[in-house]
Amino acid sequence: MMAEESTPMYGSNDVGADSILLVDDTLILRDRLAMAMRQRGFRVQTAGNYEEAIEVFRHSPTDLAVLDLRMPGRSGLDLLRRLLQMHPRVRVIMLSGFGSIPASIDAVRAGAVNFLSKPADADDILAAFHRGDEPSVPTGEVSFPAPSLARNEWEHIHRVLSDCGGNISEAARRLGIHRRSLQRKLRKRAPEDPATPEVIEDQETLCD
Predict the structure, then answer these.
(1) Tens-digit pLDDT profile for residues 116-132
(2) Model pTM score
(3) Residue 102 and residue 58: Cα distance in Å, rounded?
(4) Phi, psi for 188 (deg, rounded to 5)
């Protein structure tokens, strides 16, 4: 749950910005975060998908942007790259309902300031902006223990699903498996590799 009722730890002055774009396809989460950001002194713009965000940002660019990684249609990574093309100085935080090291590295390498797992409240997000060039995920040459075959499969499935904009039928077609088989795989938790902590949260539900 968003913590807009609590005393703000950070405000617009703390992050050196006065405007923010919030992009998430879940209306209630987007609206609650927008309210919290307004209470912290920001001019807030909102959008529910890639196309809406581009239109809003074109007419009213913001200093900061918070993007959901997985949305219907084009992904948050696509949106991140496009926003940086339009306004190279915009600072972006990427959010995801389930965190993964590969996804976080992809986001930071594409230009995001940081990558946070949901739920993230306004202070979590502003704290990440406040840290600036100190992202909490690895960005350079990183070394991880070799993942298991099951973990590799899990990561591959979710990358394909992301490329398909969350469309399970299209992802199943590209993977060459039945749609119901893919749905069963998506309901499973990410396999935990030996000697490494689990870094993936369970994804409760997925829909086309």
Answers:
(1) 887 788 999 999 898 76
(2) 0.62
(3) 30
(4) -85, 150
